[in-house]
Input
Amino acid sequence: MAEQSGMERLDIGALSPEQQEKLRQFKIKTRIENEKYLRSHPEVDLLLSDFLREVFLKRPEDIREFAADHFTDSGLPERIQLRLESCSE
Output
């Protein structure tokens, strides 16, 4: 018997209507919580936009190495803090 990886065809009837509704409500709640978190932490937006800007400008061949270097740069916290301060002025 072949092993199943969980990536086979979706079984639409696998969840009862009640389970589908609970899943839908869970997804909505999670999305709202994520949005609240991101709104209360503007540094996340700055971190991501700074990283993406650098990626688009430099177009590194090894994105993983580039990301590792970018996010471990000792000057990153100071740059983000400066941008946070300039945004709040």
User: Anything to note?
Assistant: The two ends are 65 Å apart (CA to CA). The chain is about 70% helix and 0% strand.
